[in-house]
Specification:
about 650 residues, mainly beta, six-stranded antiparallel β-sheet, about 5% helix, elongated
Length: about 650
């Protein structure tokens, strides 16, 4: 009976556990039907789990049909031209959901034999990737999330403007910015459907030039990505490639006029990416035709590293800044992305941004927007425009009289049309404190509840500040048996973070040269007679003295310091001292008297070294200290007062020093 009860209890617990087990491991199920040569796709996905306080969760879709075609629609249709079985893939992204993305499981597509002409529905138009008008373009299915997969479509084409019936050349992709210590991406697989072959980019680094277009227009840009083409000035490809640690290159041939081809790149995001959440990473595509008459291009795509999939994001470019070169004229660039996920269009979008107190609001300058609008100050009545409303610690960017479709709106198949952004630059009031700079935004579509974005955090790189130390130490005690009770001179250096404003660690290395100490061991009065060089002398006095000269090297591996203000700092730590030079000398001092032949007595002194011992790197000791500094304690000169305690000899001493941090 007891055994039966145990079994039932185990089964009950297992069942209860199975009921709460997350369904993140359930792959996306692909369903399809083919009629009159047209294949229609649908999917079955796990239920969404809404993040507390977030808007209603939803899926976005990326379909790869397995023949070079793709779609971002929920239920797309596609026409296959061949008859061979192929694999279709669905990458579904869970927005505002607290789980993982549904795994992708390729689905074999068997195309039926049919001679009937395909009947195309009105919504069956293949997606157009080339919205920027160039020869290349990139598009991702989602923002990179640590530990998740990400797909990128790399499109390239032979534009009619090129005037070439056939085109051969090279395409490449550059990724993993050198700005970040860790690699953010691993290119797991690239699927090519037009006989592209792997190639080497190195031979082209010094010969291929990538043009950069200068745009002097005052109109705000509408693009989410940045494409640069049509050379006004040129740069070597090697100058572009040196900013990245990884690249992949392919050769293409016989690209017909107006033909579009696509590479499908499966990126795995590394777990180390989590350290850079909210940072912006770049992926750059390169187009290098063999024909020198055809313009070479590159396309920059910026992606924000996210902790969860959320279309409403605030982005700070260059989240890691060099504090040494940051002043009041330093400009930061922020971008707030938003998406109307509702069932109807939005006519007004209010983007409210919290502005840190370190910024000067008067320097705010809008650089790009989507939708593309003008400033309301110069707009006529009911014209689409953007207005900037400044508050005490916030600013509102208000899009008025626009038409931003809803993602769930009937007839809307292009998710990009439901997205927008505002990008602006802002300067500091003065050189800020070396502390994190945090900003966030709230987005209101028409009269709906606000949607709050992530916090965009700007941080300063630690930087290193070497320092020079010159000091003078003096004891509290006069016991000459311990060389620590001698005065000493100190010279050395320190290494600490540059201009810290809070707690920080500091390392030091310096030499201490102690004043030679002497200890009178014994002294005796008149003694026996002696002969020196056959001359008789009488010993009047004999002193036995020990002399000691020590030089130490001192290492402070780490001390904790805190800058109370710009002018006062304090610290405490431990130092390890090693005697690199230790000389002990035993000296006998004699006072002698002798008598000449005429009876005159004379006295003289005689010094003899009885013993001498030199030791190098012989003794080590650990001391503890605490000190205070006054002056320009972050960067510049200051004076310090340090108390040291040696537990081995119970010795107390003080040191004063001057230091200069660079």
């Amino acid at each position: 009976m007891k055994t039966l009860f145990s079994i039932l209890l185990f089964v009950g617990i297992s069942t209860a556990y199975a009921q709460v087990l997350p369904s993140d491991t359930v792959p996306a199920i692909i369903n399809y039907t083919t009629e009159n040569g047209v294949t229609k796709f649908t999917s079955e996905l796990r239920p969404l789990r809404q993040i507390a306080g977030a808007p209603a969760p939803f899926y976005t879709y990326f379909w790869e049909f397995g023949d070079g075609g793709f779609s971002f629609e929920k239920d797309p249709i596609h026409i296959y031209k061949g008859k061979d079985p192929i694999l279709a893939r669905l990458y579904a992204t869970n927005n505002y959901d607290d789980g993982k993305r549904p795994p992708t499981k390729p689905k074999p597509i068997i195309k039926p034999n049919t001679t009937s002409r395909p009947m195309m529905a009105s919504n069956s138009i293949e997606p157009s990737l080339f919205k920027m008008g160039g020869s290349i373009e990139l598009k991702s299915n989602c923002m990179p999330k640590p530990g998740d997969d990400m797909m990128i479509v790399f499109g390239y084409r032979n534009k009619a403007e090129n005037g070439q019936q056939n085109l051969n050349g090279t395409v490449a992709i550059l990724f993993n910015d050198k700005e970040f210590a860790n690699n953010n991406f691993v290119l797991a697989e690239t699927r090519a459907y037009n006989e592209e072959k792997k190639a080497d980019l190195k031979p082209l680094l010094s010969t291929a030039y990538l043009p950069i277009k200068k745009n002097n227009s005052a109109v705000y840009y509408a693009s989410l990505n940045e494409m640069q083409f049509n050379a006004d000035e040129k740069v070597l490809l090697s100058d572009k490639a040196k900013d990245f640690k990884s690249s992949e290159t392919w050769r293409f041939e016989n690209l017909k006029q107006n033909e579009e081809r696509f590479l499908f790149m499966h990126f795995k995001t590394t777990p180390e990416m989590l350290k850079d959440t909210n940072a912006v990473v770049r992926i750059t595509a390169v187009f290098i035709p063999d024909n020198p008459l055809v313009e070479k291009e590159f396309f920059n795509m910026e992606l924000q590293i996210v902790a969860s999939h959320d279309p409403n994001k605030m982005v700070l470019r260059k989240t890691r800044m060099n504090y040494r070169f940051t002043g009041k004229n330093r400009e930061l660039t922020y971008k707030i992305r938003f998406q109307n996920t509702g069932k109807g269009p939005a006519k007004k979008v209010d983007v409210a941004v919290n502005i840190s107190e370190v910024f000067n609001q008067e320097t705010i300058k809008i650089t790009k927007t989507k939708p593309e609008v003008i400033n309301c100050d110069s707009a006529y009545t009911n014209q689409s425009c953007i207005k900037t409303i400044k508050g005490t610690d916030s600013v509102h960017f208000v899009f008025s009289n626009i038409y931003l479709p809803g993602l769930q709106q009937k007839g809307v198949n292009d998710a990009d049309s439901t997205m927008g952004f505002v990008e602006y630059k802002i300067k500091f009031k003065e050189k800020p404190k070396k502390l994190p700079i945090k900003s966030g935004a709230a987005i209101v579509f028409d009269k709906n509840e606000p949607i709050y974005t992530n916090r965009a955090v700007g941080r300063f790189k630690m930087g290193l500040s070497p320092g020079l130390i010159i000091g003078y130490g003096f004891p509290f005690e006069t016991d000459n048996k311990n060389y620590l009770n001698s005065k000493n001179v100190v010279i050395g250096g320190s290494l600490a973070p540059y201009a810290p404003h809070r707690y920080y660690w500091q390392a030091e290395l310096y030499l201490s040269s102690f004043k030679e100490s002497s200890e009178l061991v014994s002294s005796s009065g008149p003694g026996k007679d002696t002969l020196i060089n056959r001359i008789p002398y009488r010993i009047l006095n004999k002193d036995y003295t020990k002399f000691r000269k020590v030089t130490t090297i001192n290492l402070v591996p780490a001390q904790m310091r805190y800058n109370i203000s710009k002018y006062i700092g304090a610290g405490a730590g431990a130092l390890v001292a090693l005697d690199i030079y230790n000389k002990n000398t035993d000296v006998l001092d004699y006072k002698l008297s002798t008598q000449s032949a005429n009876g005159t007595s004379t006295t003289s002194d005689l010094k003899l070294i009885a013993n001498e011992l030199k030791e190098n790197f012989a003794n080590a000791r650990v001391s503890f200290f605490a000190d205070v500094q006054l002056g320009l304690v972050r960067v510049g000169p200051s004076i310090g007062f340090r108390y040291l305690y040696d537990p081995k000899t119970n010795n107390n001493r003080m040191a004063t020093y001057v230091t200069w941090k660079f």
